[in-house]
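Protocol step 4 of 5: obtain the predicted structure for the target chain.
Materials: sequence only (see below). No template structures provided, no constraints applied. The aim of this step is simply to have a reference model before the mutagenesis design in step 5. Sequence pasted as it appears in the construct record:
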Amino acid sequence: MTHLTSTNLSQWSTARIAVLLATVALSTISMPVRAVEEPSYQVVREIPGVEVRQYAAYTVAEVVVPGPAGEAGRQAFPILAGYIFGKNKGERKLEMTAPVTQTAVPVKLEMTAPVTQSVLPEGFLVQFVLPKGVTVANAPEPLDARVQLREVSPHQVAVVRYSGFWSASNDDEHLQKLQTALKAANLDWTGDPVFSRYDAPFKPWFLRRNEVWLRLSPQQ
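Step 4 output (structure tokens):
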């Protein structure tokens, strides 16, 4: 079981600053007003204040940036946004003609939610979830070697959802609530928490959707 320590708490707090900066950057892009696609999941269990979700497999574009915390989001966002907005190799197969030709054109992918951030020993891992139907096999190839595509296998996470400001105190309060609830339910988790942001910073703080995820250990 992963326990909260003062060292990890400091790392997680800096990671939140980075994801905030990444989300701020999202708000600068003009997008139509419509529902934003999310990865598919089912709620398989509820304990007080907590959802246990079973996520289907999905694909992410991810990048590891060194930080520091105040720069991690700024470093990650233009790299990932560049990929999904066309900085990639897309193959367009043409009908049979004389001669047979093939050309590569940039492919623009849809924005999805959430933007997630977690801490690695070498820095900050920032992920964009790619749209449904996009796999590593059929996704356009990144032109930037720092962008990695990865299939996330089906998994269960325990989730606390909350509103409010993007602050270390708000996030830590809900992480503690999640850990306390899991201990009371005799559920173990593995790995570090993932902090997820679903809204742009211009949305009123009391309407924002924030979440903290802990991946549950298998066979629970």
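Step 4 remarks: The domain at 6-216 is CATH 3.20.80.10 (Multidrug-efflux Transporter 1 Regulator Bmrr; Chain A). The mean pLDDT is 75.
Proceed to step 5.
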